[in-house]
Amino acid sequence: MSQPATTGVPVLALEGVNKSFGAVRALRDVSLELFAGEAHALAGENGAGKSTLIKTLAGVHRPDSGRVLLDGEPVVFHGPAGARDVGIAVIYQEPTLFPDLSIAENIFMGRQPRRALGRIDHKAVRTSTAALMARLGVELDPDRPARGLSIADQQIVEIAKALSFDARVLIMDEPTAALTGSETARLFSVVETLRAEGAAVLFISHRLEEIFELCQRVTVLRDGRWVASEPLAGLTQDDLVRRMVGRDLAELYPKQDSRVGETALSVRRLTREGVFRDVSFDVRRGEIVALAGLVGAGRTEVAQAVFGVDRADAGEVRVGGSALRPGSPTAAMDAGLALVPEDRRQRGLVMEMSIERNIGLTGLDRLGRAGLVKRALERGRAADWAVRLQLKYGSLADHVGVLSGGNQQKVVLAKWLATEPTVLIVDEPTRGIDVGTKAEVHRLLSSLAADGLAVLMISSDLPEVLGMADRVLVMHEGRLVAEIPRAEATEESVMAAATGLTDGADGAGEAGEAGEADATGLPRDADATGPTGDPAAIGHTDATGDTGANGPTGATGPTGATGTSGHPHATGDTGATGPTGATAEGTRT
Amino acid sequence: MSVTIEKPEKPDQPAAAPETARSARSLVDAVFRAREISIAGALVLLVLFTWIAEPRFLNDQGIKDLLLNAAILVLLAVGQSVVVITRNIDLSVGSVVGLSAFACGKFVSGTDHGVLTVLALGILVGAACGIVSGALVSFGRVPALVVTLGMLYIIQGVDYWWAQGEQINAADVPQPVLDLGSGSVLGIPYLPLIAFAALAGTAYVLRTYRAGRELHAIGSSPEAARLAGVPIRRRVLAAYLFSGAVSGFAGALWLARFGTVVADNAHGWELTVVSAVVVGGVAIVGGTGTVWGAALGALLLTTIGSALAVLKVDSFWQDAIAGALLLAAISVDRIVRVRMTRALRKRSAR
């Protein structure tokens, strides 16, 4: 690791930047300095403000206050093209390509090499692309259209794009999230070369070992605030995790005890090629099961496939024991499934319609006769649910758009609860909601579970996952890699599984039972990983029992996942997260 | 598009290009070429069948008529494709043709203005209409469907108001202008030659200039185009300007061809043009398709009309057949897109 070149003028810097979206303060007084020839890591949990920061550097957002400095001079970027023109390349978490155009055209759009009379030199475009692909060590045909490329390959195209204009600053937002081990290694060698040539690199990854491997400095954000900027040399992974996580669990999570009943939703070997694979789990009545993982791990996609919005390529969904017709949300609704989607403005609500209309949408055939909707019934249903969910509104005839985010979310919940589901799938139920309403939504979910509803909750909010879930399923790169019971779930164990760092989940049960606990909260004891893949360790969940090798711990177990993705096994200190879980749980309750 | 037309030689590629990439591309290639080949095939079959049933269909005059009938529609289809490729639509073309033809007729009747002046006037009238639609769509951010539908009626209204039932007669039009419509070189009428030149020129620009590629980019993914720094609004405005200018040009040619012009020439043509473009494989959701395909679509539609007339089939059937073709084309597009995405996704899945 070369010495960080922290002297001199930073190539690109942020100075006291603030950025809000409506009531949400995404960045508060954040500063950051990127130096030539240095790889800088940006660490923080989901929602800490990393993406906003990147978009500010990329010219997508303009800071509300504070400055962006290029070579020490304040600059204002007019759109992404402005940032690109000064040599800032951004590789986003989700690549944006032109699906109909060839890979070569995607890379050189707007910057194609030209011959006389301004004509595009198609041959040069193609050969340069082939050269870039060769430099990246991948075999992608420059003439292939981008449509249908895997995320990894799309990422490669984006990286090739950055290479093609010799970027001075390379910003990468979780570029490795969808890459295999060998692809990651190849990417790193490319980045290393660029850095050696004097480029400044800003790197975001949830895989801590990658941060330590690639970067010299790290800046940690938490809840939109700057926490620390320091050299990585001398830091341990534990130090970093502590800086990222360090916050209190407020009384936000009023978890009620509930009696767990029979299996309500059972998913077996669900696969959608290139998105997620071999996902099996059960959700029982009275239980809140969290589906955790990083953005892009395939959680939302699993939910969509379960509900029939997307068609799965293989696998089966059973609700209350009978198989669900695939690819049909109507069938899913009839079977008692309800899906509260992630993006309530786009997919959950009709913003221009009134509250009562929105709530009525899911039950139009029950609100009248012969296809005519009775206003009185519609209003009655809306009023009933508004009271039950403590909705704050002026009039039920108001547009949903005028409500606050939290109350909009309640309307979406009401809309789906009114269908009287047996299984409720909620995707990021509290994203963008203020703390007070958040607690109300949690209370609601908890009491619904206590009444016997089976709840599957997708959440990127770790405290929420830990506070609400009876069981935590963790997805990593399209696979279910861990199933952690409430007693053993900690921020560290979930995060470790989500980042593919560890085989912690399975060992957790065993180690937890052994009662080994380390007062520091982060055990060094390598034994604590326990026997991997032992179903008995999580034997109290049926999922592994009845499907044998197909269960979460079997074929898709952490060992398997790490094996296929080619990541080195975690070191002892992060691997053994079990006892920490026990400790944390013990102190909390 | 470059994927379909250029046959890339593969010397400087890694020798062991992966099987998947190869087959993925040939799949895409095949799909697009299939569209153009199948239209051409249908065209040939249609002509052969009609010719067998009625040999006069393909005598000298018959061929000339086929080409003359197709020329103006082909021209309009070329203009329309450029707009549709950007994920927009221009419904005002029929009205623009009408207005331009009438304006040119009014301008030349009883005078001895030259051919070039008339054509220039037509282009100017069309470009003026196009720039209004384009500005509203690109800078005003009003949906293209609404803007151009509004323009359709406005231009039509202006045209009616101006004409007041008046009619331009061939007798008033200078002979050189009429000669443009009826003359020929080496037995091929001027009009189809002009249309072909416009077609080839547009295809070349769309393929070889940055601006042309950026039009495809905008239609394929506006969001990605924005991130790539494509000047979206300018390009969309330019597309409408082009479509308008081409329509105005077609209006001038209309005058040259028919001599007699009333206010509602080309009434309803916008839908025929859009049908031709879509049948020809330009996806209505933008991004893909070639002007060559669109021109073939236009040729197919006019040939169906001529064939039905020769075969003495009721001309009402023409519309029904055009409609059926349109639906078939859109369905095929949709199915192909879904299938192809799935196939490509599976191929690249590990």
Notes on the structure:
- The complex is a heterodimer of chains A (589) and B (350).
- By secondary structure, chain A is of the alpha/beta class.
- Chain A has 22 helices and 22 strands.
- In chain A, the strands form 5 sheets. In chain A, strands 6-7-8-3-9-10 form a 6-stranded mixed β-sheet, with helices on both faces.
- Chain A is globular and about 70 Å long.
- Chain A starts with 11 loop residues before the first strand and ends with a helix.
- Mean pLDDT of chain A is 75; it is low at 1-6 and 503-589.
- Chain B has 14 helices and 2 strands.
- Mean pLDDT of chain B is 83; it is low at 1-22.
- Chain B has one domain: ABC transporter involved in vitamin B12 uptake, BtuC (Orthogonal Bundle), CATH 1.10.3470.
- The two termini of chain B are 28 Å apart.
- Chain B has helices at residues 2-5, 19-53, 60-85, 93-108, 115-138, 144-163, 175-182, 190-208, 210-220, 222-227, 232-258, 269-279, 291-310, 316-348; strands at 184-185, 188-189.
- In chain B, strands 1-2 form a two-stranded antiparallel sheet.
- At the A-B interface, helix 2 and helix 4 of A face helix 2, helix 9, helix 10 and helix 14 of B.
- Chain B: The complex is composed of two ATP-binding proteins (LsrA), two transmembrane proteins (LsrC and LsrD) and a solute-binding protein (LsrB).
- Chain B: The chain crosses the membrane at residues 37-54, 66-85, 115-137, 144-163, 183-206, 236-256, 268-285, 292-310, 316-336.
- Chain B: Part of the ABC transporter complex LsrABCD involved in autoinducer 2 (AI-2) import. Probably responsible for the translocation of the substrate across the membrane.
